[in-house]
């Protein structure tokens, strides 16, 4: 599988387990694209919901996607610090049209002080029943919630203090060119 290259503008699409389109982020600039990881950046990008509603993101963000991990991470750069929104979802695929993954409802929000909160457990339970998530999938997702919390506590990957600064600097440089 080929991956998007640095500087390329891509679309991100999330789906639900039943194959329905969930959400589309219109433009994200790729900062790194390898067989394991795609790191991107966007600022005030258009987001289109499955019901046709649309809105724009409010601040610059660095995005982290993996072909191996069952989560992705959005690092939102705000005046009072970096907030992280972590989506539990399938590993990504890339098909030249868009970066794609399945969103599995569970999310973790991480605050600038390092505290975090697991979100949307009710939505996960509802969709698990409605879409018949297999037991194996349920186990994978619960395991990756634990792994993600370990990353948060140990400042791994995007939670490393220098991660966002490094990639945001590259984004600003590429954006000027």
Outline the structure in words.
It is a single chain. This protein has 177 residues and is α+β, with helices and mostly antiparallel strands. It has 3 helices and 11 strands, in the order βββββββββββααα. A 7-stranded mixed barrel has the order 1-2-3-6-7-8-10. A hairpin with a 4-residue loop joins strand 6 and strand 7. The longest helix has 19 residues, at 135-153. The protein is globular. The two termini are 28 Å apart.
SSE blueprint:
Layout (H helix, E strand, L loop, with lengths): L8 E7 L5 E13 L3 E7 L2 E4 L4 E3 L3 E7 L4 E8 L2 E9 L3 E2 L4 E12 L5 E4 L1 H10 L4 H19 L9 H14 L1
Parallel strand pairs: 1-10
Antiparallel strand pairs: 1-2, 2-3, 2-4, 3-6, 4-5, 6-7, 7-8, 8-10, 9-10, 10-11
Protein name: DUF402 domain-containing protein
Organism: Scopulibacillus cellulosilyticus
Keywords: Hydrolase, Magnesium, Metal-binding
Gist?
This is DUF402 domain-containing protein. By secondary structure, this protein is α+β, with helices and mostly antiparallel strands.
Q: Which features characterize this protein?
A:
177 residues; alpha+beta; seven-stranded mixed barrel; 3 helices; 24% helix; 43% strand; globular; FomD-like_sf; Ntdp-like; DUF402 domain-containing protein
